[in-house]
Specification:
single chain, 74 residues, mainly alpha
Length: 74
């Protein structure tokens, strides 16, 4: 799609994805909730976990595969 044909498709999360060790991820979640709650009466949080021991870097790899396919690659 050319720039003049309308919006360019992009692979982008509609939520925040984070990947890492459990304790590190939970620390980030805690800090984000605390920051979001400053001056707010409440914070909503939905947490989904996909726990697969031995698998790392899957989020970035998935985005890479989608981008390659979108560009016409294998």
């Amino acid at each position: 799609m050319d720039a003049g044909d309308g919006p360019s498709p992009r692979s982008e999360a509609q939520v925040t994805d984070i990947e890492g060790e459990w304790d590190e991820v939970m620390d980030v979640v805690k800090r984000v909730v605390e920051a979001a709650g400053e001056g707010a009466p409440r914070v909503g949080l939905v947490l989904e976990a996909d726990i697969r021991p031995g698998y790392e870097g899957r989020l970035g790899a998935t985005v890479e595969r989608v981008e390659q396919r979108r560009k016409g690659g294998a």
